[in-house]
Sequence to fold (1784 residues):
Amino acid sequence: MANKKRVYLFREGNATMRDLLGGKGANLAEMTNLGIHVPPGFTITTETCNEYTKLGHLPEGLWEEVLAALADVEKDMGKKLGMADNPLLVSVRSGAKFSMPGMMDTVLNLGLNEDSLKGIIAASGNERFAYDAYRRFLMMFSDIVLSSDYPMLKKEYFEKIFSDMKEKLGAKIDTDVDAANLKELCQKYKEYFKSITGNDFPTDPLEQLKLAIIAVFKSWNNERAIIYRNREKISHDLGTAVNVQTMVFGNMGDDCGTGVAFTRNPATGEDKLFGEFLKNAQGEDVVAGVRTPESIDQMEQEFPTIHTEFEDIADRLEKHYRDMQDIEFTIEKGRLFILQCRSGKRTGVAAVKIAVDMVGEGLINKEEALTRVAPEALEQLLHPRIKNAKDAKVIARGLNAGPGGASGHIALDSKVAIEMAAEGKKVILVREETNPDDLGGMLASAGVLTSRGGRTSHAALIARQYGIPTVCGCSALHINEEKRQIAVNGMVLNQGDVITIDGTLGEVYQGELETEPASVTGDFGTFMAWTDEYRKLGIRANADTPEHAADAVALGCEGIGLCRTEHMFLGSERAPLVADMILADNEETREKALAKLLPFQRAAFVGIFKAMGGRPVTVRLIDPPLHEFLPAHTDLLMEITEMRCKNPNDPALPAKEELFRKVMDMHEANPMLGLRGCRLSIYFPGIVNMQVRAIIGAACELKKAGLEVHPEIMIPLIGTVEELAYLKAQLTDVATDEMKSEGVEVDYKIGTMIEIPRAALTADEVAKEAEFFSFGTNDLTQMGYGISRDDAGKFLPLYIEKQIFKTDPTETIDQKGIGRLMKICVDDAKAVNPTIKLGICGEHGGDPDSVKFCHRLGLTYVSCSPKRIPVARLAAAQAAIEEKGNASQRDK
Amino acid sequence: MANKKRVYLFREGNATMRDLLGGKGANLAEMTNLGIHVPPGFTITTETCNEYTKLGHLPEGLWEEVLAALADVEKDMGKKLGMADNPLLVSVRSGAKFSMPGMMDTVLNLGLNEDSLKGIIAASGNERFAYDAYRRFLMMFSDIVLSSDYPMLKKEYFEKIFSDMKEKLGAKIDTDVDAANLKELCQKYKEYFKSITGNDFPTDPLEQLKLAIIAVFKSWNNERAIIYRNREKISHDLGTAVNVQTMVFGNMGDDCGTGVAFTRNPATGEDKLFGEFLKNAQGEDVVAGVRTPESIDQMEQEFPTIHTEFEDIADRLEKHYRDMQDIEFTIEKGRLFILQCRSGKRTGVAAVKIAVDMVGEGLINKEEALTRVAPEALEQLLHPRIKNAKDAKVIARGLNAGPGGASGHIALDSKVAIEMAAEGKKVILVREETNPDDLGGMLASAGVLTSRGGRTSHAALIARQYGIPTVCGCSALHINEEKRQIAVNGMVLNQGDVITIDGTLGEVYQGELETEPASVTGDFGTFMAWTDEYRKLGIRANADTPEHAADAVALGCEGIGLCRTEHMFLGSERAPLVADMILADNEETREKALAKLLPFQRAAFVGIFKAMGGRPVTVRLIDPPLHEFLPAHTDLLMEITEMRCKNPNDPALPAKEELFRKVMDMHEANPMLGLRGCRLSIYFPGIVNMQVRAIIGAACELKKAGLEVHPEIMIPLIGTVEELAYLKAQLTDVATDEMKSEGVEVDYKIGTMIEIPRAALTADEVAKEAEFFSFGTNDLTQMGYGISRDDAGKFLPLYIEKQIFKTDPTETIDQKGIGRLMKICVDDAKAVNPTIKLGICGEHGGDPDSVKFCHRLGLTYVSCSPKRIPVARLAAAQAAIEEKGNASQRDK
Fold:
């Protein structure tokens, strides 16, 4: 540990050192070595951050390394930190392995004090600029570095002092305040600082630097960073690097400026430089969305030479990294500096278009294209679009920051948005601008609308990352926080009113507009076709109705892996028949009720089989505990208590009491572990007999009509081979009988779900009786963990927070435990029944990590909800490509 | 299959062929080859029974083999089946691999018809005997062979015809009826047979034989046989053999007789011939308990030579088989025939004494002695004894057929006994005599009392086998079925009244007498000491109080494997504190409530640690869902509904509603899979902190008093290593703090229960954090099977009945599935933590098969309820001996 290098000058690193230097540091090093003009600096490693976290203080020896690196930078720049004569200013920024925009802390202009201020004034010849930088530094340093100890040092208190001064001066915008006033403001800031802390503002630049480094380390574990990592499944052990870099200034005058640009359009994927630029401004003005910047095209007019230079650099960087880049730059007194470069976040739409285009350009191959798009992002391509906006009135226009259409109730802050969403309402979050604290509210909303901020503002960034339809910088919008109203072009809307936004066009409508699903065409179609060239896993859908089945076919499914049948027992016509059946005192009454259900179910299967056009359909026989179809015992108890109290002789009472008795007879302490699945079918054989009659009858009907049909009958909740053998024998008899009476034979299979741990552990027996297995990973996870999803709400969030669960096992298959059970099952099943079909139909079937795991397990197919099908297809293709990669690595 | 030999003459078999010939057939063969006088015959194999069951008819070729064997027997005896001249009569009996007394069918006197009857009369010179045999045959054949098709052919209808005749004749007992009347009775039987079936009674002896063989095959799957096998864990695939054997007659006159004898006393183990004898009677008279037979000693006086011959044979057989034998014999006209010989069923008490005695006699060695006693039988030695009967009035005396004292409510039939037991009452079943249909009622009873039947009657047999305290042949007892009363020596008792029986002395008392537990002394003590010489598994107890702990130590436990702590939260003083704690709105209130619970719990642990005298004590931290300590939500709902209805302004209503709201907040859909075990401890850290403070505080207190103490803290329901690591860190801090404040260090361990499948599957991680594992096989089985024991009541009986579960996995560990999970866990845990202690504390810890499995798994100890400790000790010793046997077999 003692000999480990902790500090790297930019020229000492390269792009492969992301683990150690973070993404930003590695890229700054890479660019430096590419000869691109990057302000010099150095990076403190992520490992050092972890050391700090463990120790609670800076590790021994670090500071000496920092000073040596600083001396190198000072020599390179010919400047010195804190010197009155030609002073060096630096930025101190976080930079983790994976980008976490806005989640951690940054300090700019570090090194300013009364001495160096003089040097800056001398060097820039611009007193106003120098005091502006100073007042920004005083505020930012106080806020970032010290406000966790002194809450009154938060930014807002300094802003208040500034706005009070502006009001007194009658100044409208910051630039209306002159150098003298800014100098006075700096004095006020320092007085305020002392009034809060009792100490003078730190003047020693090295002390400033040390405190700032510590603040960045600490920011790795601030609350919003932890929430972000949990959501993004980024490990909490990675730590952040710290980049200390020479400051350059975009706000020294009209020959200065700053901007952020993408080498291609991150919203649409269009192959055209896309970005924003502000003259005479510092970078944070752009990123924070405080001022609405101009388009990058504006730079071409104002700084034509620099624009060309920048275009050239952008092109070099894109070609070097073979991916679309997100580049921060600053123009200081007519000189272009590249401050940062990283792979640009993009919408799913853009990701697909860029990948397809780059294959066309010969920049990458199909395999690379397929690995470039996060499977989850494809779901964004399926965002509904506004169907017909012709007659609707556009009440405002803004920037089309996140594609897709959405309607919802106006919420004016994140808290309200989360509350409304919890009530089941669709929400449009409407804010002046958003900041990292709004993440929760944004994720809870169907769409986001802001009045300020551009395409690279926080709102736009999040919109792209999470695929939230978003309209930004809608300047016609005026928000009245107090009255909880918004005013738009003379119209007033209240919080709770419904609006619609079109994030694809940047338009806002009053009221709700109809939307329609997207289709798999164009680049999206091309891309999805490529996934099919690579993947080995079959993709099926979980679909219960002809409508779902049709959607799933349109999205590329190859069959139904799970057709639930519970809904076939519900509905106003059917539910009373089901209650009759369950509560019947004798088999005869039960059989009569079942006979009435048969035609409903047969018709339902005819519809589904038709929609699937000959693809296999796995039908799961009835699964939930019967009491789910019955009235709640607590409701009955209340009714009875009330009736007894009001009129004990109520003639309706005895029947109600009898009903209660029967319902209580079916009541279970742990319904999840009770009379359900195959147990129910052994207990009440009539129900599944009726279901098999309906399935086989429907199949025969279609076959006679000349259609192809392949039903697969799936028996749920098998724990022992004897259960399966018992029901298989019974159901085979019913199927044979039904085919005989229909006069035609159909191809059908009988198999089982593997959702009880014991079934997986005894697969060598169970597989002998089954033609297919389908992992019911929801239940397998429930039983394997001993956790009911219905009841986990109390402690699961606590578990995630405390990192007891690194990922939520109900979302992603727990490969270590539940996955091991699956592996045992797969190996044992194949050993005794090599032709067995193996699938998965739990909700994990649409989770990319889980899909890849299923590929590695050697399953035949995954089955997921229709809208996850593109996700699963891509994940399956990536799994196959990764496997090839691993195989070729092994070959070396 | 075609060439497989299906029929074996007795001289063709031997004792090792039990699988094929059944126990009875193998022993008849063995005895035949020992030169003991056995009536000749042959055995049809058990495999043939299975063939029959599969085919539904006799397999081809069997009949020819039967005829050939029959011809051999006929030649041997010089008689012929069905001939008028010197006819052969045979018995046709079942005989499975394992004895199933009275469970299957037997036909005697087969071969009788009008022709052969003449031959019998001629041969015996006793017309009355011949007709008596004939009327028995007519009845038995009809009942056994044909009553499943014709229910009106059941024995009782024939008995009725006989008793009507006796009444008309004024005959008191059977022997009062003369030959002429018996002849008339036979005629009536044949007429009755024809009136029911429409056919004549079958006269062809070969047809009789064929039908009887089929009837025996069928009886393998009669209901009571299946129930018996389920209880005894005998496989249903074994099938029964059929023994066809020459009839000899004990009822041909006063130079005849029949009896059953044990080579040692089966109730006490005393080394003295023990049995019963009836002059001029057929065997079934003895076994069925219809006539109360005399003691075997009576035979010595009446047939001194034969008695000596019999004693000699008994001695030879016991020495040959090196075990106590149960021998059936018949004296026909002064000649002794041995009809059957098998290892005698015995009480646990007898089994232990015989085993210990035989070691003393040099007949067997200690290892054999230990394998001779069924572990389950030891529980019988722990039957309570009547403590002080001095002042109690003996109301009747009978035979001491099953040792132990028992009090209970009189039930006059098995149905009532089962119902009363289901209500939680202790029952004494009082019957004239019992028959195989009474098995269920006897098992439900604490004791059995019969007015007829001797020590080898059905009641006595079952009493011995299942260790039910039983008094037989209590002739003073008169049962009035109609009035549901019994009269005893002038006293009248009603069904439901309480009596006490002393099965050790054969006495009956009115009312309830106090009982005391047995102790491990004398032969029992010697035997248990031997178990400790062989066993490798440690034996611990599940004990929650000082009293349980003391009982467990007396029975030989080496520590506590499971000290549950739930009861420490209950009781009138503590329960309200617990409710306060759970429902507290803030941590402060919760901490206050916990502080009040601390002294109670500490005192409880002091008591338990003292009782264990330095042995290790594993304390499980709080486990059940908290709502178990709260009022039922349904009760609250009823109360609130009633209050609202009666007086909506009731001032007590709001508080009740608030309580309901809080209780509902804790309500769970599946509490078994909810907030319990370690999850609860992570959610409410205060409870376990308090518990650890109490445990460590108590340990420190005792250590300071100079006592030895080894607490082991067990964290339940771990599913991931992170849960364990999290709590271990927290609890270690508490323990350290407590030791510091007590000023003394104690030796304590922290470990976990393995009861969540995932914990077993990830043992390579979990074992790194644990000093011990204890398998909670109750939950592991629940989760592994996905079956809640609370809810399995609906389908588990159906599963056992339909053989979907061959054994109940909640009683005996399912080695195939749950056992595999345990094996994975043990192997992985030892690999990363070779010194880890591994135990089991589920209820399976007292089940012999499960104990043996735990030995094979290589666990450190099993823990079971105190009264199962001797059972577990013996099972553990047997497992070690079996392992040696397997090892030495492998060595060969």
Remarks:
- The two ends of chain A are 32 Å apart (CA to CA).
